[in-house]
Design brief:
Elements (H helix, E strand, L loop, with lengths): L7 E2 H11 L5 E4 L13 E2 L9 E2 L3 E4 L5 E7 L14 E5 L11 E4 L3 E4 L2 E4 L6 E2 L10 E3 L7 H9 L5 E4 L3 E7 L3 E2 L9 E2 L2 H11 L3 E8 L3 H9 L5 E5 L10 H7 L3 E5 L1 E4 L5 E4 L5 E5 L3 H19 L9 E3 L11 E7 L2 E2 L9 H4 L3 E6 L7 E6 L2
Parallel strand pairs: 1-20, 6-7, 14-17, 14-18, 15-16, 18-22, 20-24
Antiparallel strand pairs: 2-13, 3-12, 4-11, 5-7, 5-8, 6-10, 9-10, 19-21, 21-22, 23-27, 24-25, 24-26, 26-27
Pfam family, one: MoeA_N
EC number: 2.10.1.1
Catalytic activity: adenylyl-molybdopterin + molybdate = Mo-molybdopterin + AMP + H(+)
Length: 381
């Protein structure tokens, strides 16, 4: 039986999608491959940083009072161990090079004067980075739950990490239903182009997942049931077939597959006939309305928080900001409108994306909203 009521309150549906899922198991990856993923365990230094006493400036490693006699040179890179410096001696040294034992300071070139093999000057600072002064083995770099940035990955490499433990990114399969949908070329009479694959791919990537494939399906319950019954991605997204029309088969197919519904219709306009179900075995199904703008609303309402939770990301309520302008409010729920800056863009229709394309976010307006009031904002992909 398909339900036709107003549906679950929008805020409850959005929170439900993020609360139900648990992060996928951790896997080991190289630091570079972990960028964009979420740490499953704390990241700690494996080695000291610096690993040895190093020169922090180009100049001369010195010991004892000056002037000093230059007895050698050392640049950054591997090399034989250097003998300890004797009092009154120095070696020319490059930034990052290991300083000899007993070095008291590095005298920068700009603070020194050289006459033949003798240098003089007054060291104002040691200019030596001591082994372990930044990190010692076991020191915490980042707690679990943190997203791995390129900077964090580089810091992990510097601290000796060979691999990071991160949550596996959720995989998504998209089924674009509808006899009228074509994937390329100019639409003929009764045809429309697939505008969902790019949108779902972008929302998926932003939430920390990856789109495995997008497949077009006819308006046929057998084909839909066969597609949903195949093993594969953790999340299956179905665009279209979500309402109660003669060609809308998803609800009946999911019921036949013993799916558990968690969200079955949301009290919002557009995007009401969206849903979230769980198949036996734990795979998720997100139902998006076939109208492109309504489908975008549903993707940001249910798909993005679900994927973020599976990826191990913290799922927070949308930020709120002032919204101005006019909107036809929805008495039984919320109206979701395109916004640029604070201003509502007029002309949004469930079947068209052109107004949303000019916006930077979608505002979620309750029936009590008035121009100038704050409202939750969904950032557009």
């Amino acid at each position: 039986m398909i339900e036709h009521g107003p549906g679950m309150p929008w805020a409850v549906a959005h929170a439900t999608a993020g609360d139900l899922a648990r992060p996928l198991p951790a896997e080991r990856t190289t630091p570079d491959a972990a960028i964009g993923r979420i740490l499953a365990v704390p990241l700690r230094a494996a080695v000291a940083v610096p690993a040895f006493d190093t020169a922090a400036m180009d100049g001369y490693a010195i010991t004892g009072p000056g002037p000093w006699r230059v007895v050698g040179r050392r640049l950054a890179g591997p090399g034989e161990p250097v003998d300890p410096l004797l009092g009154g001696t120095a070696i020319e040294i490059g930034t990052g090079a290991a300083v000899p034992p007993t070095t008291e300071a590095v005298l920068p070139y700009e603070d020194s004067a050289r006459h033949g093999d003798l240098i003089s000057g007054e060291p104002r600072r040691p200019h030596i980075r001591r082994a372990g002064e930044d990190l010692r083995p076991g020191d915490l770099l980042a707690d679990e739950g943190r997203p791995v940035t390129a900077t964090m990955a580089a810091a992990a490499v510097q601290a000796g990490a060979e691999e990071l433990h991160t949550h596996r990114p959720p995989a998504v399969t998209l089924f674009v239903t509808g006899d009228e949908v074509i994937t390329s070329g100019r639409p003929g009479p009764g045809q429309v182009r697939d505008s969902f694959t790019g949108l779902v791919g972008a929302v998926t990537a932003r939430a920390g997942g990856h789109l495995l494939r997008s497949t077009r399906l006819p308006d046929d319950p057998v084909a839909l049931a066969d597609a949903l019954g195949r093993p594969g991605a953790e999340v299956v997204v179905v665009s279209g077939s979500s309402s109660a029309g003669a060609a809308d088969h998803l609800h009946r197919v999911l019921t036949a597959l013993d799916a558990t519904w968690h969200v079955r219709g949301v009290a919002c306009r557009p995007g009401h006939p969206q849903g979230l179900a769980e198949l036996p075995g734990g795979r998720w199904v997100v139902s998006l309305p076939g109208n492109p703008y309504a489908g975008l609303v549903a993707a940001l309402t249910l798909l993005e928080p679900l994927l973020a939770a599976l990826a191990g990301r913290a799922v927070a309520p949308p930020v709120t900001a002032v919204v101005t302008g006019e909107a036809r409010l929805y008495a039984a729920g919320v109206r979701i409108v395109p916004v640029t800056g604070t201003r509502i863009l007029p002309g949004a229709r469930p079947g068209s994306l052109h107004t949303a394309a000019a916006a930077d976010s979608l505002a979620v307006l309750t029936a009590a909203w008035r121009s100038g009031d704050p409202a939750p904002r969904l950032v557009l992909p």
